[in-house]
Amino acid sequence: MSQRLSILAGEPKGHHSDGTSDSEGLAVFRGRGRPRHTILLRDAALLFLAALREIFDESAYTRFLTRSRMVASREAYAAFLRENELAKARRPRCC
């Protein structure tokens, strides 16, 4: 799995959900392990899931928690929603 997909999927850098590290992942991708089409299909699915998380504000909430150094809670989510509403109100409207 590429490093970008690992980051989008929310995995720690260097480690993947299948238990491999970056170097092991490269070995698998080079033909030692899973077939290449299986890996490509998995990466496409992870990219699709990352896009869905972005669309439904899940990634934005995670970035908010990191930026504000908060843990997930009702209060943190309420603060996230307030910040989003303020940002939307400041955007210029067209037509």
Q: Choose one word for the global shape.
A: elongated
Number of helices: 5
Count of distinct structural domains: 2
Describe the main β-sheet briefly: none
N- to C-terminal separation?
43 Å
Order of helices and strands: HHHHH
SSE-based structural type: mainly alpha
Radius of gyration: 18 Å
Number of E-type strands: 0
- Mean pLDDT, to the nearest integer, reads 76
Low-confidence stretches at least 5 residues in length (pLDDT < 50)?
none
Strand proportion, as a percent range, falls in: under 5%
Notes on the protein architecture:
It contains five helices and no strands. The chain has two domains: about 5-55, no CATH class; about 60-90, no CATH class. With about 100 residues, the chain is mainly α. It has helices at about 5-10, 20-30, 35-55, 60-70, 75-90.
Describe this structure in a few short sentences.
The protein has 95 residues and is mainly alpha-helical.
What is the element layout, followed by pairings?
Blueprint: H1 3-8, H2 22-29, H3 36-55, H4 58-68, H5 74-90
Relevant terms:
0% strand; 95 residues; mainly alpha; single chain
